[in-house]
Amino acid sequence: MRRKSALDNGIADVTTAIARSGAPTSPAAEAARRAAVAEEQEFLDSAVARRDSLVDHLQAELSSAALDVLERARLRMLRQQYEQLRRAQERLVFGRLDGLDGTVRHVGRVGLRNDDEDGEPLLLDWRAPAARPFYTATAVDPQGQARRRHIRTTGQVVVGVDDEPLDGTMTAELVGEGALLAALDQRRTGHMSAAISTLQREQDDIIRAEATGPLIVQGGPGTGKTVVALHRVAYLLFAHSAMADQAVLVLGPSPRFLQYIAQVLPALGETAVVSATCDTLLPDIRVGRDESRTLAEIKGRALWQAALENYVGSLFPRPRELTLRWEGEFYAIPAGTVAQVLASVRGRPYHRARQACAEQLHHLLTEAVVDQREALVNAMDEGFEDILARVDRSMQHDHRSAGGPTGSDVDGLLSEEEIDALRGRIAENASIARFVEAWWPTLDAEDLLRGLVTDRALLARFAPQLSAAEITAVATEPAPWASSDIPLLDAVADLLGEVEAPPPQGEFVADHARRQRGWVYGHVVIDEAQELSEMQWQMVLRRCPSRSVTAVGDIDQTEAAHRHTTWAQAVQAAFGQRWTAAELTICYRTPREVMDLTGPVLRQAGSHNSPPRAVRSCGIDPWVLTVAPAELADTAARAVRQLQQRWHGGTVGVIAPADRIAELHAALADVPVLTAVQSKGLEWDAALLIDPQGIAAGPRGWNGLYVALTRCTQELGQLVLG
Questions:
Q1: Where along the chain is ATP bound (predicted)?
Q2: Contacts (Cβ under 8 Å, ≥6 apart) of 556
């Protein structure tokens, strides 16, 4: 809402400056603070009332029945608006911009219009272009703004304001520093929350970047990679309405991670989103076993894409003469004609090509039957009435018009309507369908892949890049699918194509998308993207052939079996050189005291990158306690209890080597006990590392230790075996 600003009194800004400096608050400054809070409370009350009014109006609109397609589409749009407003409970209003021209605009979770449809909005949606200066304006580049105000609320009550003059009288490294640091110091709940009120400029730049091609975002621990990824989804769905018709796919590294972020996008009112891991992308297919890192690396290589294409291609029928029987007569389709038919469907998925060829075969058989009839009719004209009688008996049909004789009743030749009817009967004939199935059988993706990967001869033929030892390792795996099999199975399913497209289910586009393997998304966002194998990247491209992809991750936290150490290596097979790089350089989550430990660990991991720069200090030095192996479980239990007491109301997590997880689970039933890989993307107020040297001794272990060190927001403890 645009209105005149009260900037000229300047008192609220002075109050904020005094509070931050730690100086005593004067009565005048306290009065100004209360006045500012009361002013924002009045606005929040009006915004809440307007939101409630719009919710009631939309609810009434949605109670009517949809009578046609257009009405159903309108109701879907209204339901999405209703959901956005209904969920906008917390932080409905969180910011304000005071312009140099004296106008005021408030910024919030959703946009709210005034009763006057043509007037200025009451509340700006945080994604709207006019709201961008809230995240990007600085004293050096005020972008037409005189002041930025962060409004802190609890429920529907304003509890504080933080003002930032943008005239150079006060500078801060961070946008909304007070609000940001207050948010970072809050206890962790085990679920991520929206961060729209505290986004920083480098984060906002990535959130609003163009979505025309692959964007690869490098960010170290605590830089807000996941925040950026999720808020980018919300921004894109707001800025590109057509994208909502296709939905956005969010890929995370694990079900635990998806549970952690599950509340963010619904809280922002977004329903056109499908969340999954690479292991859960295929409907009704689940991973049934673990596998070695060696096999995961072998089956993650890009070579499998060409191998599978060649394998499925070898299963297409070869040109030969086809002889079909129709009503007691045999009809031959020459090999040359069959070759032309097969050439016309080249490049299509197996089952789609099969369907197209079957349709052409029906046409060819129809033409052969008609041609033979015409030949017999011509012979009849030369005196072979007995032949015509036999043909008439064999071509009985029930499509004669009640209005009088037509078509073959008159001259013995079939009319166009009768030919169409004949073609339809051929297409529906069970014996013809059995012939097509024998010539071009329907295939099952799981059976097909299992037949390939368990056959050494086939592997040697279609994947000659594999060594004999690698072929043996693949061929002797047990039957249940492992994680690295899922991308191969997806590739086979894509090459085969659907036999029949599944019917749409559910009210929202996301319901349709998650049930269809071949759904094409408007955009894909990938978190922890450094973990994807080359074949998993192919899974992404199949779901977004436009390459409208945002991938965030930290190449230095890679734990997967593949061997890339740079983003260029990681995405070469998928994108070649056609991708844009971006970087998050500031660590907000992990305190400076902990980040100081990561430099030597990165060097041990072989990284040439510098860790992100931490901008906050917790005042708590990381501590180390040496413990005998026999006393590990008891000592860990005591340490966890102490951490839980110190961080009451928050969260504590334990990270340990894989071979110690079972022992610690038994002793620590009330806290998460995870490996470094499992902890990726998560955060706790306090983290306890068990046997850091044991973590570092594992495969890619220094990278794992780097992950483990950076999971806390306040306190880090380590139990070292001695």
A1: 219-226
A2: 220, 602, 605, 607, 609, 703, 706
Q: Is the pLDDT of residue 330 over 80?
A: yes
The Cα 240–Cα 528 span in angstroms is 25
- Res 397 pLDDT > 60: no
Residue 2's pLDDT is what?
44
pLDDT at 572: 93
According to DSSP, the residues that pair with 163 across neighbouring strands are: 149
Q: Is 680 among the annotated ligand-binding positions?
A: no
pLDDT, residue 398, reads: 44
219 annotated as belonging to a binding site for a ligand: yes
- What is the secondary structure of 183-248 as a DSSP string? HHHSPP-SS----TTS--HHHHHHHTS--SS-EEEEE-TTS-HHHHHHHHHHHHHHH-HHHHHH-E
Q: How many CB atoms lie within 10 A of CB 398?
A: 5
pLDDT of residue 410: 45
Residue 323, helix vs strand vs coil: strand
Q: What share of the chain has pLDDT > 90, as a percent?
A: 52
Distances (CA, A) of 676 to 113, 160, 335, 685, 710: 47, 38, 61, 17, 10
The reported pLDDT for the residue numbered 393 is 57
Average of pLDDT values for 391-420?
Answer: 59
Separation in Å, CA 137 to CA 102, 164, 228, 312, 501: 16, 10, 19, 56, 50
Confidence check: pLDDT of 23 > 50:
no
CB pairs under 8 A, 24+ apart, for 410-418? 411/377, 412/373, 412/377, 412/380, 412/388, 413/373, 413/374, 413/377, 414/370, 414/373
Cβ-in-10-Å burial (0-12, 13-18, 19+) of 321 comes to exposed
334 is in an annotated binding site: no
Distance (Å, rounded) from C-alpha 165 to C-alpha 590?
Answer: 28
Per-residue CA distances from 32 to 27, 39, 172 (Å)? 9, 10, 22
In whole angstroms, give the CA distance from residue 712 to residue 655.
11
Tokens describing residue 477: 């795996």
Please list the residues that pair with 720 across neighbouring strands: 626
Report the mean per-residue pLDDT for the chain.
85
Beta carbons of 87 and 135 less than 8 angstroms apart? no
Burial of 431 per CB tally in 10 Å (0-12, 13-18, 19+)? exposed
Distances (CA, A) of 698 to 561, 702, 716: 12, 8, 21
Q: Which helix (H) or strand (E) holds 263?
A: none
pLDDT at 389: 56
Q: In this predicted structure, what is the pLDDT of residue 69?
A: 78
Annotation-wise, does 226 bind a ligand?
Answer: yes
Tell me if 653 is assigned to a ligand binding site: no
Classify residue 298 by its DSSP letter: H
Mean pLDDT calculated for residue range 295-322 = 96
What's the CA angle centered on 248, arms 63 and 225, to 5 degrees? 125
Element (H, E) at 130: none
Q: Which residues of 641-660 are buried (b: 16+ CB within 10 A; e: fewer)?
A: eebbeebeebbbbbbbbeeb
- Per residue in 683-693, pLDDT (tens digit) is 899 999 999 99
Q: Is 189 among the annotated ligand-binding positions?
A: no
Span 62-80, average pLDDT: 80
Task: Note the pLDDT of residue 6.
Answer: 40
Encoding tokens for residue 398? 């029930």
594 alpha carbon, distance to own chain's centre: 31
133 is in an annotated binding site: no
List 150's β-bridge partners, or say none.
95, 162
Q: Are 282 and 517 in contact (CB under 8 A)?
A: yes
Would the annotation count 119 as a binding residue? no
State the amino acid at position 151 in one-letter form.
I
CA angle 78, 209, 548 (to 5 degrees): 75
Fill in the amino acid letter for 145: Q
